[in-house]
Amino acid sequence: MKKILVTGGLGYIGSHTVVELQNAGFEVVIIDNLSNSSLDVLGGITNITSQPPTFERLDLRNKSKVTEFFKLHKNIEGVIHFAASKAVGESVKNPLLYYENNINTLVYLLQECKAHKINNFIFSSSCTVYGEPDSLPITETAPVKKAMSPYGNTKQINEEILIDTCASSQLQSIALRYFNPIGAHETAEIGELPIGVPQNLVPFITQSAAGIREQLSVFGNDYNTPDGSCIRDYIHVVDLAKAHVVALQRLLEQKNKSSFEVFNIGTGQGNSVFEVIKAFENVTGKKLNYNVVERRSGDVTAVYADTTKANEELGWKAEKTIQQALASAWKWEQKIRNKA
Ligand code: NAD
Ligand code: WQD
Fold first, then answer.
1. Is residue 110 a contact partner of residue 161, using CB atoms and an 8 Å limit?
2. Could you tell me if the CB of 101 is within 6 A of ligand 1?
3. Which residue's alpha carbon is at the smallest distance from atom 33 of ligand 2?
4. Are 266 and 128 in contact (CB under 8 A)?
């Protein structure tokens, strides 16, 4: 069994990826500092796969602890690095937290990878690097635009750090640029756990439907789109998780075409905010209470992926529909409400 380190493995995307890695026969070691997750997630993963992954509670900003970790855990063959702070608004208010947590941690990890000859590295990037795109769907060759937030900037800098490190060492890396991940595992054992008021659309929708939020605000209906609301590429988190397994296998089997590669990971379909609302209502039979408010600053009009490169090179394609994703998000919301 090949041993893979998953940082941020108790988080939203990380936990779903751990399940898919275990299903594919990998041994998983998780690092997480529980800053945006909980130990219960470990139980959820184990309930699905019947294999408890190894877990180390560790803050990746603590360089000496990271060094200790790698001395203790030998024979790691690949790293999937999810651990980061991800709230766009918070990054504007506290940029240094974001530069420390998202940049330093990558540097410390790469230093240890170099020291221990761990050459396979998958990185969580984001479609946010494209900013407001010049044309749609977006291909990987689209220019990286000046970041609109410190968070977005960390993803751009992270990619540059990886490019430079790959060029100067044995490191082989794939950056996956995620579009908008939504939904939860079909078992409702794991899912998204937003802390406080959700900033993202789908958790806000499910909390509104559950009666925790009074009203959903639609941020603008005067965009240049068919129904006036913004368009995004919403991808089921399980499809996204599976993309990590194939990307990792590409590196382990040395099928990558260059030492640093990027792939768009989306469905290739754009959906407007109103379409998401309608799809949620149809799938769940719940009526959403919403009203249209001012545009949210920093929102781009429309973003969706050209996934040809991932389809052809990784042999990966999103399989689940937005209806399945919304149904799973609702099942998860109900499960956590019943537990609370
Ligand atoms: P998440 O917050 O659910 O998961 C991140 C995990 O990392 C959490 O469990 C957190 O406790 C842990 N963590 C954070 N800082 C750490 C540190 N210093 N040391 C150890 N653990 C630490 O987020 P997610 O949605 O699963 O996102 C995972 C990755 O994907 C992030 O890098 C994020 O920027 C990126 N991404 C997310 C989205 C999205 O919409 N969710 C989109 C594009 C990219
Ligand atoms: C989706 C659409 C909103 C909430 C963010 C980050 C991005 C990436 C994914 C990490 C937009 C609208 C939302 C609400 C609404 N993360 N909306 N009412 O902004 O596309 O992307 O998460 O890399 O970097 O910026 O996702 O879910 O916040 O918004 O109308 O209460 O829903 O305006 O059009 P976004 P989102």
1. yes
2. yes
3. 219
4. no
% of the chain exceeding 90 in pLDDT:
99
Pick the residue whose CA is nearest to atom 21 on ligand 1.
32
Instruction: Among the bound ligands, name the one nearest to the CA of residue 192.
Output: 1
172: which residues sit within 8 A by CB, 6+ positions away?
Answer: 119, 120, 121, 166, 251, 254, 256, 259, 260
30 CA from centroid of ligand 1 (Å): 13
Q: Whose CA is nearest to atom 33 of ligand 1?
A: 86
Burial status of residue 71 (CB atoms within 10 A of its CB: 0-12, 13-18, 19 or more) = exposed
Percent of the chain with pLDDT over 70: 100
Q: State CA 227 to chain mean position distance.
A: 28
Active-site residue (options: 98, 151, 223, 304): 151
Residue 54: pLDDT above 90?
A: yes
For residue 337, what pLDDT is reported? Answer: 87
152 Cα nearest atom in ligand 2: 24
Site to substitute for ligand 2 among 36, 264, 273, most atoms within 8 A of C-beta: 273
Distance 200 CA to ligand 2 centre (A): 5
45 in contact with ligand 2, CB cutoff 6 A? no
CB 300 within 8 A of CB 227: no
- Please say if 223 is a catalytic residue: no
The CA distance from 282 to 288, in Å, is: 11
List, in order, residues 6 or more apart from 176 with CB less than 8 Å away. 122, 123, 124, 125, 243, 244, 247, 262, 263, 265
Rounded mean pLDDT, 75-85: 98
Residue-range domains of the chain with CATH: 3-183+236-265 (3.40.50.720), 201-232+268-339 (3.90.25.10)
User: Is pLDDT at 134 greater than 90 in this prediction?
Assistant: yes
